[in-house]
Amino acid sequence: MRDVVVVGAGHNALVAACYLAREGLDVEVVERRDVVGGAVSTVDRFDGYRMDVGSSAHIMVRHTGIIEDLELGDCGLSYIDMDPWGFAPVAEDPSGQGPPVDALVFHISPDDTCQSIARICGDRDAEAYAAFAADWGERNTRIFELFQDAPTMANVGRHMMGVGRATGLDGLELSRQFLTSGDALLDAHFTDERLKTALAWLGAQSGPPTHEPATADLVGWNMVMHRLAPGRAVGGSGSLSVALAERLRRLGGTIRLGDGAGRIVVRDGRARGVITESGERIAARTVVAGCHVLTTIGLVGDDELPDGFGHRARSTIRTGNGIGMVVRLGTNALPSYPGSLGGAEHHALQLLAPTRTFLRDAHGDYVAGRPPERPAALAMAFSAIDPTIAPPGKHNVTVWGQWHPFELADGGSWDDIKEREGQKLIDAVDAMAPGFAASVEHAYVQTPLDLSRELNLVNGQVMHVEMSLDQMFSWRPLPELSGYRMPADGLYLTGASTHPGGGVFGASGRTAAGVVLADLARAQRPWNRLRAAVRARTTP
């Protein structure tokens, strides 16, 4: 019998497995795909190209200390700092109208960033940005600490105590700012629409558009990138997961690929192990599910959970209607933008949206169940800094487009329109970097339906559960599940469905492992062991 079976080999699941194995537990991970990492994996797409399946840039995990704590550098993981980390082509007109003629550049250094802002937007916005970066960077340092802990009220109070004090804010004003929209926050600080658009498009990467309430911090949290650079893992995003898998093996854990969990066995209110898709039973004292929370419930079955729990979960947890799609391109040239930094722009997230009205129009199409007529795009060209992911003389370019519905209002199929919609994303880059479309030699399109198929994402939602305020912190994915425990003894959750949510973070995995270890230690206390023995003798 295993001590722990972990369902899924996503990066959070692997982090949890590593921390559990490090404490001497016998851990096995079961994964249905033939590669580790889930959405943090890299595979061969075309001859000589190594392309990411999901994420490409790593921001949050670099703030957790997990990489250093698990000594993943010794397991082959290395990063290239993204400096600059943001590059936004802009029009000459301050309203954002017209073709791009220059670019706003966001460096790790706030001073260098402010020089770029001053040159394009003026000294006032540059000074405002310096203050904004310092204030919201400090706030989000505290929030990132909270993200690495269980989201209890005590932890929220402990980590957030004194936030805003440096700028003289009381609790009511601080809460008002966090509950306002990202757009309102930007309007309160800046005047130039081009700067506000770049920051709004960055803020929207978690999913909700910045004109919605309680999205202010989706804009503000990006200021932590002035404190520690985002990183590109050498060899592809999946290098993080490969290093985690290697660390797990060195700790004595095992990984079973190509044979995922077909069922999580729960009997008499307690997890007993898993039955794999091939029919093999793996008995275990503890099961940690790193898959989607609704998938986990399906693997257990409603009959083994409290009455009505499955229905409550399916009717309450909002996965939304997709979020976006992506094209992975093999090209013979890099995008050539106005305001080029001599190639340094390809270190950065390339923010390709001219105005906030443009962003709202794209979101409006999404709400109506239509692919956006003109999609907002975010491009990454990391082969410019990591030549291992493309053949010599070629480039590997990823273009993410947001707000593409999983279910189409007209009842159509994504399989019928995927090439057309993929071309729209190529054209969105070409509009900012004329001539780019002609450089494309290979294109792999991942629609919301494709992402769902490949990564087992419910409704194509890459964050598992929507990243709206009412589904964050102690409400994610449900209040009774926010402690990483399912309503069956010995069954736990980790992954994007849980606090702190989606993205390449790893914090959920480490925190879930801590919960498991604390429960195991509690169960070994003499009084609890005696009580369990009495219960076992008297249970019919």
List the uncertain runs: none
Instruction: Specify Rg, calculated over alpha carbons.
Output: 23 Å
By DSSP (H or I, 4+ residues per run), the number of helices equals 17
Label the overall shape.
globular
What does this structure look like?
This protein is α/β, with parallel strands linked by helices and 540 residues long. 35% of the residues lie in helices and 18% in strands. The chain contains 17 helices and 18 strands. The protein has helices at residues 11-22, 66-69, 110-121, 123-147, 153-160, 171-179, 182-189, 193-203, 216-220, 239-250, 293-300, 309-316, 356-367, 414-432, 448-455, 507-523, 526-538; strands spanning 2-7, 27-31, 42-44, 50-52, 79-81, 86-91, 100-106, 231-233, 254-257, 261-267, 270-276, 281-289, 324-331, 349-352, 377-380, 395-402, 440-446, 491-493. The strands form four sheets. Strands 1, 2, 9, 10, 11, 12 and 18 form a seven-stranded mixed sheet that branches. A seven-stranded mixed sheet has the order 7-6-14-15-16-13-17, sandwiched between helices. α3 packs antiparallel against α4 (123-147) and α4 packs antiparallel against α5. The model has no long low-confidence stretch (mean pLDDT 94).
Q: Which short descriptors sum up this protein?
A:
single chain, seven-stranded mixed sheet, alpha/beta
